[in-house]
Amino acid sequence: MVRRAKKSADGTRKSTIREVAELAGVSTATVSRILAGNYPEAPVTRDRVMRAVKELDYVANVHARSLAGTPTTSVAIIINSVISPHYAHVAQGVQTQATAEGRLCLIGTTGGDAARELAMVQLMREQHAEAVILVGNVLADAEYQARMSQYAHSLAAAGSRLVLCGRPPLGPDVPAVVVGCDYTGGAFAATSHLISAGHERILCLGRRPGYTTADARHAGYRDALTAHGIAHDAQLEVEGTFEREEGYRMIKERLESGQRDFTAVFAFNDLIAAGARQALLEHHLGVPDDVSLVGFDDLPPALDLNLTTVQLPHQEMGRTAVRFALEHETQGGAPPHIVLDTHLVIRDSVSSPR
Amino acid sequence: MVRRAKKSADGTRKSTIREVAELAGVSTATVSRILAGNYPEAPVTRDRVMRAVKELDYVANVHARSLAGTPTTSVAIIINSVISPHYAHVAQGVQTQATAEGRLCLIGTTGGDAARELAMVQLMREQHAEAVILVGNVLADAEYQARMSQYAHSLAAAGSRLVLCGRPPLGPDVPAVVVGCDYTGGAFAATSHLISAGHERILCLGRRPGYTTADARHAGYRDALTAHGIAHDAQLEVEGTFEREEGYRMIKERLESGQRDFTAVFAFNDLIAAGARQALLEHHLGVPDDVSLVGFDDLPPALDLNLTTVQLPHQEMGRTAVRFALEHETQGGAPPHIVLDTHLVIRDSVSSPR
DNA sequence: AGCACTTGTTAAAACGTTTTAACTCTTCGA
DNA sequence: TCGAAGAGTTAAAACGTTTTAACAAGTGCT
């Protein structure tokens, strides 16, 4: 019996493999094989099938396909926000590599909300994403450890894989790939650079105890001071988040209260540096003539500000995350922990103190 | 007969609705209904089922579900690159709205390559995305018209919908939603602002005949000159793409060849403005003291440069695209064409000519 | 001619859901 | 006491692929 194509309400008519088979006068198995191209096939049949496919504008139904065997391969990335340069760059790396490896890229944003993160992870798990990449700054407390372990196991149970990008690793028994970056080393280099120029009173902006990325940078800052025999001064370590407005606020508040007790500023990211610079300028302090400034990230604002900063391999992190997530998939063994390098980019925002 | 859960190679064990049903001592139909919650259900049964679901950490298989009825709902966005601020903002809007409407967001990048765009559209079509949103600058020639029409029909045939975001509309018979922005009006306002300040020799940067976004801005520029009775001078209209380096190049080449024949610059986007500004500074021309500068987009660099610019509703465009794509889905009628407004943001990069 | 391959094709059984139609109890009104 | 209506549940039929196992038909070797 000939099965007729069903017309749906809106007049849409998706063609099925059956119709193609009928039109070509072969079985569905043959069509499937010819399209997959992994079986011996007679040129004549092949032609007939291809012609039918063209004619019907046939596209295989992914859902049916996934169900039957060939699982759809996609990689998911979950970030705070697409418009933050750092996340955008990592996402670009993930997207590029995913495409290169023949995978589709799903993207979800959380706005920094742990509940939405959880929901997203669930969603991606339902979608059977091959890997779920979580990126970003986070409070690394016990609650975090527990939540991530749960994600990792839950995903592993569904045949997927958790990747932490720029987040602290979990235990060795937890099945999660970790891709990090030597933040501490970068901060050490940045601070050392200022010290070499003769600075000793270096303000650091963006301290946020408990948050991994901030902590790592702070550690590098302290290490550099120690290495050069300079005592650290807690008064010079200002707390704030990683946003432009915060950089502005931190400097502004300090200058307005008359604390002009530093000759250089190390901002924990370029956005903070941009805000800080604006506040400095408003107080008639030039960069680098009056105050030296070093940032972190080397993202768009840096170039316009002529900012000496620490370059991070943002895109490379994304690419690496995908690469290892998929590679590791096939092998067994302990999940890898990769650490990428950073390097200082010297522009024109540092000079010697007067 | 009791079917046992299959163990896959890596020890993974996804639980099926069958197992849940067995554990709860009911049929799969009941489990499905209780989870969907759209049917009468006895509290006792409900409890048993929910307990079983919890115990097995059961998550329904999307593919099976889509195949059987409830189609998975996702929205796809295809852009040049995630790291370009404009695209990132639109993508953020799409992501936000998609999530708000309970949809997943797929993302693909093309790098500006038409072939990859085609491949992406195919891919999204296979994925049964409810809507495919194409955003960005494009050469609006006949080939474009043909390609887009093909996309639109192909997607419509698959029950999906094409959305053009910041791209020129196709014919009225082509099933594509168009979300645009009043680029011409914005450019008119920007140019008028310069003219009001007393400028008559206004350089415009980023001309690119045939490319829609550039053309629209150019039209606004010309209109403003005409409206104020100033004759346009083709010598003042410089060709270039929408990148920072190009802005730098355009000004640099001009100044190095001694053509210091303008008092103001209208850059077709903020990146161009950033590059232009750098070149101006290198030639010891201050902004706005020596040369006035207006940009377009109001994206991150603008704030740091204190740039007067035209604000575009980037995120709103993304949100609107999703909203109309999904809304229109249910109704019939001609596909909508929405045009959003722009407005001038005045900062400190314009002054009167000396 | 008989046998063992290879080549090309197919019918039918998965895959894991949702949904249709049918079935069994209760309950209630007449 | 009967019949109808409703509540709760289920067996079985989709959904559109891939894949397994089986089967023809052709080829070369003895």
Automatic annotation (TrEMBL), chains A, B:
Annotated GO MF terms? DNA-binding transcription factor activity; transcription cis-regulatory region binding
Query: Which residue intervals define the domain HTH lacI-type in the entry?
Result: 15-69
InterPro entries this protein is in?
A: HTH_LacI, LacI/GalR-like_sensor, Lambda_DNA-bd_dom_sf, Peripla_BP_I
Gene3D superfamilies named in the record: 3.40.50.2300, lambda repressor-like DNA-binding domains
Entry keyword set: DNA-binding, Transcription, Transcription regulation
Output the SUPFAM superfamilies linked to this UniProt entry. Answer: lambda repressor-like DNA-binding domains, Periplasmic binding protein-like I
Tell me the Pfam families matching this sequence: LacI, Peripla_BP_3
This chain's protein is named LacI family transcriptional regulator
Recall the taxonomic lineage recorded for the source organism: Bacteria, Bacillati, Actinomycetota, Actinomycetes, Micromonosporales
